[in-house]
Design goal:
Elements: E1 13-22, E2 27-34, E3 40-47, E4 51-56, E5 62-70, E6 75-79, E7 82-84, H1 91-103, E8 105-107, E9 111-116, E10 127-132, E11 135-137, E12 149-154, H2 158-163, H3 170-182
Parallel strand pairs: 4-10
Antiparallel strand pairs: 1-2, 2-3, 4-7, 5-6, 5-12, 8-11, 9-10
């Protein structure tokens, strides 16, 4: 059976939302949703600002990663420098700002790699992943509390790090596996 075209109008339709909670970090809303066939349900969703991430690759095909603890799932893992973009901020500028703040390394002319929706069933969050082979070390990271360690890790080890649970962040895993497969220049 052929699946409907994504623009055919056969998907779920948001008939309107009501805000439950709003913070500077997120808004929790309820939506009245119409399913194909006309059935209506209530659905919770999180409205979140975009996330930006930057993969900096050196001339030895190593990528700069942060070893960090995420307190919500209580887990440790390697991640790309990342952060939330202000809704009025240019995404490339936000990616560079966040990478510098978390790592002390400033990306030069980062280019788009991927746009991912890591939690599409619950949020509107889009992660914008950039990459570059040009960067400058500016000193210790201003946000030195963000990472336990900052290291250059071989891009070739990405699959084994993902398989071993050392990279748990889905957008970091997708970015590194994409870079490894495409070997951009």
């Amino acid at each position: 059976m052929a699946s409907p075209h994504p623009d055919s109008g056969d998907g779920w339709r948001n008939l309107g939302e009501q805000q439950v909670v709003a913070t500077p970090w997120f808004a929790l809303n309820t939506a009245e949703v119409e399913l194909p066939g006309g059935r209506r349900i209530d659905h919770y969703l999180l409205r979140l600002p975009p996330v930006v991430m930057t993969a900096m690759l050196d001339d030895q095909d190593r990528v700069l990663l942060l070893w960090r603890h995420r307190f919500i799932p209580d887990s440790w893992g390697w991640e790309l420098p990342s952060g939330i973009a202000d809704p009025t901020e240019d995404l490339v500028a936000a990616a560079s700002r966040q990478a510098l703040a978390e790592s002390g390394w400033e990306p030069v002319e980062p280019r788009p790699l991927l746009q991912l929706e890591p939690d599409g069933a619950l949020t509107n969050r889009v992660s914008h992943v950039y990459w570059t082979r040009r960067f400058m070390h500016r000193g210790p990271p201003p946000a030195d509390f963000e990472a336990e360690r900052i290291e250059w890790i071989s891009l070739g080890s990405a699959p084994s790090l993902v398989a071993a649970g050392k990279i748990k962040a889905s957008c970091t895993a997708a970015a590194l596996l994409t870079l490894r497969a495409s070997r951009p220049t």
